[in-house]
Amino acid sequence: MKIKKTLQINAPAAKVWETLYANYGQACDWASTVNESKERQVPNSDYIGRTCSTVFGDVSEIIDHADDDDMELQYHLDDTPFIMKAATAKWNVNPQSINTSEVTMDLAVTLATIPGLLMGWMIKPKMRKDIYQTMDDLKHYVETGEQSEAKIKSDVKYFKKKGKKAA
């Protein structure tokens, strides 16, 4: 399954890149699909990873490639929820003007065989919807400095279920 989405953000490319790469471990600050996240060290790698509690389950990611000059980031999931076999995400930030950026996210997901066969018809549209929402969350967060309404609702639901108070 492939999902690709491009959108315009009314902010300098450097600000978008900072959110995506410099603050890689803090995806939970802005993404409604990520309720908790933290940076982690990856042995024998030039890059870091992160662990996340997501709407799809707990995931662990490792950066494969990052290029500050071209503002390109690629990472893969090295520990996936039961519904996934593998996933790789590529982000690219392109300046359009001083205060406008174009951001593209290209996601490739391989569903696990049994869940894919039994629930693929349900999982794929939800995953596409959630990834599009994540892009909208990024846009809102970078442009306003605040979490989107979807992010706030997601955290309230997640932390209520978990028995904690949302941040």
- In one word, what is the shape? globular
CATH architecture: 2-Layer Sandwich
Task: Determine the fraction of residues in helical runs and give it as a percent range.
Answer: 25-40%
Taking the alpha carbons of the first and last residues, their distance comes to 33 Å
CATH topology descriptor: Alpha-D-Glucose-1,6-Bisphosphate, Chain A, domain 4
Helix and strand run: EHEEEEEEHH
* Low-confidence sequence ranges: none
Numbering strands along the chain, what is their spatial order in the largest sheet? 1-7-6-5-4-3-2
Number of domains: 1
Q: CATH first level: which class?
A: Alpha Beta
Q: For this structure, what is the CATH homologous superfamily?
A: START domain
Number of strands: 7
Q: What structural category do the secondary elements indicate?
A: alpha+beta
Fraction in beta strands:
35-45%
Mean pLDDT over the full residue set: 89
Radius of gyration: 16 Å
**What is the number of helical segments per DSSP (H or I, 4+ residues)?**
3
Q: Care to describe what's here?
A:
The longest helix is centred in the last third of the chain and has 32 residues, at 113-144. The protein is globular, with a radius of gyration of 16 Å. The chain is α+β, with helices and mostly antiparallel strands. A hairpin with a 2-residue loop joins strand 6 (84-97) and strand 7 (100-111). The protein has a single domain (2-160), classed as 2-Layer Sandwich (Alpha-D-Glucose-1,6-Bisphosphate, Chain A, domain 4). The protein has helices at 13-22, 113-144, 149-162; strands at 2-9, 34-41, 48-54, 57-67, 72-79, 84-97, 100-111. The chain is 34% helix and 41% strand.
